[in-house]
Specification:
It contains eight helices and six strands, in the order E-H-H-H-H-H-E-H-E-H-E-H-E-E. It has a single domain (2-189), classed as Hypothetical protein VC1899 like domain (Restriction endonuclease-like) (Rossmann fold), CATH 3.40.50. The chain has a six-stranded mixed beta sheet, with helices on both faces. By secondary structure, it is an alpha/beta fold. It has helices spanning 11-19, 27-32, 34-43, 45-48, 50-59, 80-95, 117-144, 160-173; strands at 2-7, 70-77, 99-105, 150-154, 177-179, 188-189.
């Protein structure tokens, strides 16, 4: 079974907002339009979501002829936007018979202007350490299950600092890490920079 651990960002909400006329929606308003965002996602999942686009480019799971068993773990921030996107992606994936797990990561809904640099540093450090520990523990659990899982880390979506954490985990735990840049048609596997 293929198992992809995916950082989840807000591309779905941003892409939805970009299609609205006038384009005055912010992410908070998009969250309130949950059903409309869900319809937008179902119309063209590759175009709507960076996470689903990269997962499909790596696995072809959206193709009707795809018969592989697939499991996904969504890493999401515990913010209104993060919970909304992870819920929509979870429902979409389950409708495609994909096994879905979730790892919540600490987030905060305060506007960036309302926080001190010290608070931001402490919050980010705490969240990233918990992300690292949570993903490492999740991989260890997956490796003890009776069903053999080919685990990969997808760092296309989410907070850029999460990419660094997933990359370090990938090197340490010998798990491939891949990324899809919006101008590419294929995912790239990040090379192991720890080797000369």
């Amino acid at each position: 079974m293929k198992h992809h651990i995916i950082t989840t960002g807000v591309s779905l909400l941003q892409n939805y907002c970009n299609t609205q006329n006038p384009r005055l929606l912010d992410l908070g308003l998009a969250v309130q339009q949950h059903k409309n965002v869900e319809n937008f996602l179902n119309e063209d999942p590759e175009k709507a979501s960076a996470e689903l686009n990269s997962l499909h480019k790596r696995t072809n799971f959206l193709d009707a002829s795809s018969d592989q068993s697939l499991a996904v773990t969504l890493i999401f921030t515990e913010t209104n936007e993060g919970r909304c996107v992870s819920s929509l992606l979870e429902n979409f994936l389950k409708s495609r018979l994909v096994e879905v797990n979730k790892i919540p990561v600490k987030g905060f809904d305060k506007p960036a202007l309302d926080v001190t640099p010290e608070f931001a540093q402490a919050e980010a450090s705490d969240a990233l350490i918990k992300l690292r520990d949570g993903v490492c523990e999740h991989i260890r659990k997956l490796r003890t299950q009776p069903i053999k899982r080919d685990i990969e880390l997808n760092c296309t979506g989410g907070f850029k600092a999460e990419v660094a954490i997933l990359y370090a985990i990938g090197i340490k735990m010998e798990v491939p890490v891949y990324y899809l840049h919006e101008t590419f048609r294929v995912c790239i596997t990040l090379p192991d920079a720890s080797k000369p």
